[in-house]
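Loading example: each entry is read as two labelled lines plus one structure line.
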Amino acid sequence: MYGHEPSSSETALLAALRGGDEDAFGALVDAYGAVMHRVALTFVRSSAVADEVVQEAWLGALRGLDRFEGRSSLRTWLLRIVANIARTHAVREARAVPFSSLELARDAAEHEPALPTDRFQGPDEQHPSRWVSFPTPWSAQPDSALLSAETRTLIADTIAGLPDGQRIVISLRDVEGWDSAEVCSVLELSETNQRVLLHRARSKVRAALERYLTTESP
Amino acid sequence: MNDEFSCQEMIEVVTNYLDDALPADERQRYERHLSYCAGCSTYLDQMRETIRQTSMVPRDESLPPALREKIVAQFRSWRRG
């Protein structure tokens, strides 16, 4: 994990929280509550369970306040608490534990290439492993297709249908816009595993966009 | 095996490329292939567009007020010890 020095504003905030300052706590909830709620929702899917997870996370944070050592930012610390609690609840929803070695192994075993192999020339053709035909540039699409709410819905639905690990990683990297280091730190996942999951997820979202843009266009 | 990426390999290393996680020699091979392959250049553009589009998926920007109130109530009882 990367090093972190607590900023003076964080140090002051921690002192205020430990002293029971409700305004300071309210400001913290306003700063990180929404993103914690979204993180919970990427794990558990039901908004009632996500609400419970977020409440539990804040309680856990308050109880652990004296143990917060500032080795990560307060934000990362809070996000890691919510991710750990959400993971526990996801298990109770009777699914595989996200990011367990079991889940990663299953995901690897079910691995599909980013594109079907028939998009590339076979070993006996003139140029093995080259494109059969190039993908059609999306710049040829009318702008409206790429700007429409329908496109966003398609992406959201595609992400919702991904296996747990892939769904959570693409939600944090590409919907939330976190960098790789923060995602790895919050999910306690190696850079390599994180990138593998992101790659599979992004490849599927790209493929869904390609199908949509090439079949729906006039 | 020659030491150039095939198109089929290119699409599997694109995420590492975009994350700047390719070793220097592979990065050079990736960029060399791009310089002569319109199909792989299009694919890279589409991955960038996919990322841009995904970043525009709407998100809830605030906590439901009732949930916020419950969290603050927890704080008050924690404070009382």
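The domain at 101-215 of chain A is CATH 1.10.10.10 (Arc Repressor Mutant, subunit A).
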